[in-house]
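Final paragraph of the annual report: two paired records, presented back to back.
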Amino acid sequence: MKITTALPIFALTLCSCSLFYAQEMGFEEYNPKSTLVVPENPVSAAKFPFIDVHSHQRDMSPDALARLVKDMDELNEGVMVNLSGGSGNSLNEKIENIKNNYPNRFVVFANVDFDGVGKAGWSEKAAAQLETDIKNGARGLKIFKSLGLRYKDAEGKRLAIDDPRLDPIWAKCGEMGVPVLIHAADPKSFWDPMDSDNERWLELKTRPRRKRSATDPAPWEQIIAEQHRMFKKHPKTQFINAHMGWYANNLGKLGALLDEIPNMNVGIAAVIAELGRQPKNAKAFFIKYQDRILFGKDSWKPEEFPTYFRVLESSDEYFPYYKKYHAFWAMYGLDLPDEVLRKVYYKNALNLIPRLDKSLFPKE
């Protein structure tokens, strides 16, 4: 896609002839600085201590934990939830390092390996291992998008999120009182035609492996519907739908789903750009569903957190996002009430994730 900033102009005079060449650039390079002058109120640290329910940390050695805590303190982050806990010995090592160094600042969620579904005894063995992981200290279960996109059963068929052979996993979490944070599919735009109407065109151009289709591996609507059916089938289990279930761009639909599925909560990780472009609508949504929304960031880049804080807390207008390929539009602040902020930042997570240290957070 080419953008031409000016047309060639030929100026002819009796004495000289000058040629002015247009500067051409691709859409990837076109990123103009705004000339708008409005009040600015950057937010470097969250107004209240927060719980990041969506982080990924491979290294949880004592040295790594110390570095993380330093950054967390600067952001006013009380607790980090590491969703990449693994299972068995790998999980136990992370839990032991946390216990011996910063026992109240980190928790880990376990993961399930879905290879082998359909083999004799798989469901029972997987549920038993999950139970052991939870008893050893895991505070929840994280499901990656590989379920629904890449995993296949023992017969080579795509493993659906609501496959009944997985029911013991979801039931075990409900039985043991831990939440399931699940990422299903990806943004709908990844399934749409890659043309000038697609808002994620630049992301797909620069990261072509993210492109999907109705046959690679299945329609978007089918994968999302599998997830919702699974939630409804397990009403005693609390689910945190990562990335607002990819409906942050359609809050009316998301609200209807929350009304329909009382055990579904949503995390805001990686979708702050959707919220920041609809401040009035998003603010109304946050106020209405304030007990069901949790703070999360996903990628651990401390320098990006202030954009989240500014969108949630301020009333600023037209400020930049940090990834053009995610959003080529500007952000606006939601200016959320303090009580809503408290719930999003920490209260809702305290209600869902067991045994968090409440003394890290305000009592009111």
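The closing record of the year follows.
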Amino acid sequence: MKMKQGEFITLSASTMMLTALGIDIMLPAFGELRNDFDLDPHSTETAKIISFFFLGQVAQIVFGTLSDRFGRLPILRIGFPLYIIGGIGAAFAPNLSLMLIARFIAGVGASAVFMTTIAGIRDRFVGNKMAQIMSLVFTIFLFTPVIAPFLGSAILHLSSWKMVFLTPPLFALIVFLWSSRLEESLPTNKRMPLNFPSIRKSMGNVLRNRIFLRYTTITTLLFTALSSYVASSEHIIGGIYGKPSLFAWIFGGMGLLMALSTLANSYLSTKYGARRTIKSLLLLYTLVAVGLTIITVSFGDPPNMLLFFIAVTLMMAINLAVEPNSSALALEPLGQVAGTAASVYGTLFFSIGAALGSIVSNLMSNSVSPLVISYLVIGISGLLLALNDRRPNDVLHD
């Protein structure tokens, strides 16, 4: 790799940042958007703007197969234009239905960019080293939730929600130009033929691998928790707790702690290994979920706002610290079909997680109990899956 590691990490974080920016910056604009589209002020319909973007990630399954045949860069260069076109289409959509279609297209583009970034990292790094690199990428990437809500609010004061929606595709154009410095990571002699027997074999290798399925399920569960909160955060803060002016501060503060937690995970995964770290983090996640459930049952729904957001912030921080480890562990045994593995991984956790998260979000009209209960179930399930991996601790290597 001719590009220095620091630039590669920063570029990888910027490409992945498109997914977060395509969500977080527009959350403060939902109130104005409801007015323009004549929606009820407390409508949860705006959550679909997030959900449809996530559902576009199902295209990763196609892009992954193509990237194993043609390389990572051609797929990356398909993803950027789709993201940009979808983003512009959403900004100028005359109604919510057309906006959701445009958001799905943008999500498809983001899926190509996200998948090729993960596959490119896997091509270059392996095991605990990959977990460390992923943690550094996520640390930079997660500053987006810190900055984006404030940026969205600032743009709203100067312009309209349309300009807020146009910001992600404009940023994507800059990163697209920067990505021209990136080199292909998949050598020609390691590419897979594009025919049905080859595709079936690659898919079979991925879907029959128990390690892959175990850690992909953990990521899917945790992404359900993340997507359900992100999609409903504006409604929880502004509608259920009646504090819309605090949205940017709460969301940004949570993003800062999440970024710091992934940075800490880079150290922990290097010192203790990805598997030991993920078990400890999921145990802590479950304990916090149990505590929040007890508080909600004992003191009413919604619980005290400060206690609720302390608990949720801790769980979201742990959530994002776990993801680099689960990525590394899921993809570790599948280096020969990294594109297909990354695409199946991304498709499953994005599409299933977004669908389940959307269900949880739609249940929260006047109550946070659906979110609290889902976090408890997710914590227990994820912990049991991690604890049942009883392989020797030195399975991962650099």
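Residues 215 and 326 are 5 Å apart (CA to CA). This concludes the annual technical report; the extension proposal builds directly on these records.
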